[in-house]
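Hi team,

As requested, here is the filled-out complex form for the S-adenosylmethionine run. I kept the field names the same as last time so the parser does not choke. Let me know if anything looks off before we queue the next batch.

— J.
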Amino acid sequence: MSACSLAEYYAERAAEYDEVYRKPERQQDLARLRLLLPPLVAGKRVLEIAAGTGYWTQVLAGAATAITATDLNAEMIAIAAQRDYGPAEVSLRTADAYRLETVPGEFDLAFCGFWWSHVGRGDIQRFLAGLRARTGPGTHLVLLDNRYVPGSSHPITRTGPDGDTYQQRTLADGRSYEVLKNFPDREQLTADLAAVATDVTWTALDYYWLATCVLT
Ligand SMILES: C[S@@+](CC[C@H](N)C(=O)[O-])C[C@H]1O[C@@H](n2cnc3c(N)ncnc32)[C@H](O)[C@@H]1O
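And here is what came back:
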């Protein structure tokens, strides 16, 4: 899937995006993540990539020193702008995850919620190189994403030549999009990060995985 069609899908989905956080079977995991994440960003200046509606921005805002939350889609940023982040210093801006040099600020930590799974196998090193160039060595990276759970996840409908997997997603009005969505396991993620990061940790919940590392 091209970056353009992924972005278009999410632009069209923005108004209904937060429904995904109302899936009943995922509530226990989500509550756990709301406890696990704040200590990871405590006192940090956070660059959030592909922040969407700001669901996790709000969770991080209680502990981080500052957050610059970015997303390619203005439709997402507009929804994120309606949230209350408390006294935290949160700035929202449109930015392409592959063009992070356009984002001003200094950062100790980058956070990607449900973005890694949309980075094609062939784009992973390009994304990481851009992130590393923008933030520098010693920057912490926190990744949160989905595990594939039959019955809860959209079925995988196709696997591409690079190993990318795809799902067919339908919006409330019936429009259907094929979306690249990868489900790496711990070994795959560790291998993908090996050239640019150290100290990789992996926490598996029932529906999600949470990983941390430090960029070298
Ligand atoms: C699965 S959503 C995740 C949103 C949010 N992080 C969350 O966890 O709720 C993926 C997000 O990636 C954004 N996106 C798509 N292509 C992008 C790109 N090239 N650069 C930055 N954001 C992009 C979409 O607009 C969407 O908000």
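Two things worth flagging: The domain at 3-215 is CATH 3.40.50.150 (Rossmann fold). The chain has a mean pLDDT of 97.

Thanks,
J.
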